[in-house]
Amino acid sequence: MTALTFLDAEHGNRPASGRTDGDRVLLDASSMTSLTGWELKPEGLCRGDVCVPVRDPELTVDDAIDAARFAAALGRPAVVDAAAGVVAIGEPSSERRGPIEAGLAPDFTLPQLDGRSFTFSSLGKRKKLLLAWSSW
Amino acid sequence: MEWVDAADPRPTFTMVLDCELLLGELYGIYNVPTVIWVDEDDRIARPPVIAPGDDMFRDFTNIDSSVHHDQLRAWVHTGALPPASDREHVMLPTDDEQLARLERRVGAFLARAGNGEAAELHFARAAELAPMDWTIRRGTLPLRGDDPFGEKFFAFMGEWAAAGHPGYGSADPNAPT
Q: DSSP H helical segments within B18-150, as ranges?
């Protein structure tokens, strides 16, 4: 068992179960499902009512899923660093562009300074000023 | 956190921590301080705009903070938006930028874990993919042990200017000046 980390924008870093094989990171199928919501079924990769057919014979190795091939099958960008045991899977630009092109303010949930979660839409129907700042 | 803790009086508005730069990805934020106006129906009334809260760095940014403040007050009180010619263009994320954000995210995780050597490879790839993104070019400097106000920042400013961008500002090449 190798210590692996899975990264995404919404959740930050989370531990993952699986192993490395050369430059590949192979995540246990159950771990991939709990991390991403996608489950490998006979009809393909499925989440909710959506299934994406997969014809890549190298997607799985025994009971594990190749992280890079998983992302490719779903059309998502990925960075896999097997030496460091890290996988980051993101959203395709087309999904991020949609709300921006439509002029919609995407909802988000992030931690406040005291650790409690805050959801942007909880501010309701009023004008809102969103300020992004960093001390660098 | 230290900046928030040092604030006196402490801000009363909601503050959130965005370690993975989720908002940058959702809204197309490439630099800070960036402000976005969102109306009562959760529509973007004004796309991301560089808007310093005061004039502390005005000599450097060439941005008069009172202009944005006045425009903001007008919008809040009357709903009036600045003329289109004064507003920024919406920046849509590209495939390279999305990949750059992942490279930055992996680099930041590795740097925080003390694996600076591995992190550097990812930061370098992120910079190649999104060379004009300040959150990547300047934002990673402290994680790389560099001064965000130092030599490497001013080298980046040189690249920024050479690419045709006016001063400290938006990544939008057609942004009003």
A: 22-27, 58-61, 65-78, 95-112, 116-129, 134-137
Are B75 and B105 part of one and the same domain?
no
- Look up the ipTM and state it: 0.95
Residues B10 and B77 in one domain: yes
Pair B169, B157: CB distance under 8 Å? no
Residue B172, domain member (yes or no): no
Shared domain for B103 and B82, answered yes or no, is no
CA distance A105 to chain B (A): 5
Nearest chain A Cα distance for residue B163, angstroms: 23
For residue A46, the SS3 value is strand
pLDDT in tens, A43-92: 999 999 999 999 999 999 998 999 999 999 999 999 999 999 999 999 99
pLDDT in tens, B89-123: 778 899 999 999 999 999 999 999 999 999 999 99
Q: How many helices (H) and strands (E) does chain A have?
A: 3, 14
- Which chain A residues are within 8 Å of B72, Cβ to Cβ? 129
Distance (Å, whole) CA A16 – CA A2: 9
Q: Are residues B112 and B70 in the same domain?
A: no
Distance CA A17, CA A33 (A): 11
pLDDT digits (tens, 9 = 90+) for A20-37: 999 999 999 999 999 999
Q: Is B121 within a domain? A: yes
Q: Which residues pair with A24 in a beta bridge?
A: A21
